[in-house]
Each structure stands twice: as structure tokens, then as C-alpha cells.
Design brief:
Blueprint lengths: L2 E6 L3 H12 L4 E7 L5 H8 L3 E5 L7 H11 L5 E6 L5 H9 L3 E4 L4 H13 L6 H11 L6 H10 L3 H11 L4 H8 L3 H15 L4 H11 L6
Parallel strand pairs: 1-2, 1-3, 3-4, 4-5
Helix pairs in contact: 3-4, 7-11, 8-10, 8-11, 9-10, 10-11
Pfam family, one: Response_reg
Protein name: DNA-binding NarL/FixJ family response regulator
Organism: Streptomyces violarus
Length: about 220
């Protein structure tokens, strides 16, 4: 089955460009478009896309609020890929904090756009981990987030789970973590699932943000 994508951006040319790049791939299908975040929830309920590629800045409802609303109101929400003009942008970090699974620059090359959509859909790797670290270093609380620290303390991760979380924060995939720890991929998947459950994170991006915000992992 192809990865289905909903495009949300107030610039028609951006949507047209993304559609042309994605629909050139046999395993990706663009199922709909919207010009503002306010249209996301009804379209997601109607089309059930795997991934929403969404501009972070839009006139009526921006990508941050649209992400929050989507995750709050839709059962089994899709993966959310924030599309942005500027990489080092506080809006991007706030979108990740709100629950977005990763971000993509509008000037990205076609191969990078396709890779981002596939990676977000799979959910087994962190998209652009170095950029996420940079954002966390600049805009995160750097261990000063009391709520994040409390969540990390309550999680009581085992030594192996903590090691897996640190490797997740470095951007390693499940297969790469398995090779590093000399264990099976299924074992790593079990550890990742345990980490997400204990932290109350919907995916590895949110777990890594929590690790940075709590000071468990240093973003620098």
C-alpha cells in the first residue's frame, strides 16, 4: 500500500511542487490539499492520510495549533511533517513540542522530501537529528522543564531503556541501535515501545524532545 499524504500550505505553488515530487514516486500518493490548518481535521477524518505535510506558518490556524488540535481530537492521528522556510525557527521547535514528528525545509531537494515522508511514515528513525538537537539547544529548557523532569523521573527507565533513548536521540534507527547493542531488531523495538509507554510519548520524536527538555540528554 502506498504512503498517503495530505498537503497543507497557504501557498499554491508550494503545494504543487510537493505534489509533483511526491506523486512521481510509486509508493507515495497525495490524497488531498488544504490552504490552512483550519481545514486539517475534517480532511484527516475524511481521507485518513498516513502523513500530513503542513506549513508551520499559515494565516488562520498555524501548524502548531493545527498539530495540537489534530492530536487532541482525532483517534489514531496521522504522522505530522512540518514544512518550513527556516530551519532554525522557534515555531518549528514549538511544533515538535506540540506533537509533530519531524520537519522539512521548503528548499529541500526532491530526494530529501521523499526520504522525509517515507521516514516519518515508518517512524523508526528521528528525522534530521542534528537539526533537532540544535533547535533543542537554542529553544528548549535545557533541563529546566520541571514537568519533563518529573515525567522522566516517574518513567524509571531501566539501564538498557536509558541507553536506547540516548541512541534514539542521536538519530539511530532500530536496526542501527540493534547493531550497536548487539541484540535483535525485535528486542530494540520492544525497548523503544517501553520507553515511549513510560514517557507517555506517541513516537520517538516526542521521547527525544522529552529527553532534551528534562536534561536527561544534553542537546549540545
Amino acid at each position: 500500500m502506498p504512503v498517503t499524504v495530505l498537503l497543507v500550505d497557504d501557498e499554491p505553488l508550494v503545494r504543487a511542487g510537493l505534489r509533483a515530487v511526491l506523486e512521481a514516486q510509486p509508493d507515495i500518493e497525495v490524497v488531498g490539499e488544504a490552504a490552512d490548518g483550519a481545514a486539517v481535521i475534517p480532511l484527516v477524518r475524511q481521507l485518513r492520510p498516513d502523513v500530513v505535510a503542513m506549513d508551520v506558518r499559515m494565516p488562520l490556524l498555524d501548524g502548531i495549533e493545527a498539530t495540537r488540535a489534530l492530536l487532541r481530537t482525532v483517534d489514531e492521528p496521522p504522522r505530522i511533517l512540518v514544512v518550513t522556510t527556516f530551519e532554525n525557527d522557534e515555531y518549528v521547535y514549538e511544533a515538535l513540542r506540540a506533537g509533530a514528528d519531524g520537519f522539512l525545509l521548503k528548499r529541500a531537494r526532491p530526494a530529501e522530501i521523499v526520504h522525509a515522508v517515507r521516514l516519518i511514515a515508518e517512524g523508526e528513525s528521528l528525522l534530521f537529528p542534528a537539526s533537532v538537537r540544535q533547535l533543542a539547544a537554542e529553544y528548549g529548557d535545557d533541563g529546566g522543564n520541571r514537568a519533563a523532569r518529573a515525567v522522566m523521573e516517574r518513567a524509571q527507565l531501566t539501564e538498557r531503556e536509558a541507553e536506547v533513548l540516548r541512541l534514539m536521540a542521536r538519530g539511530l534507527s532500530n536496526a542501527e541501535i540493534a547493531a550497536r547493542l548487539v541484540v535483535g531488531t525485535e528486542t530494540v523495538k520492544s525497548h523503544v515501545s517501553a520507553v515511549l509507554a513510560k514517557l507517555g510519548a506517541r513516537d520517538r520524536t516526542q521521547a527525544v524532545i522529552a529527553a532534551y527538555e528534562s536534561g536527561f540528554v544534553a542537546p549540545g
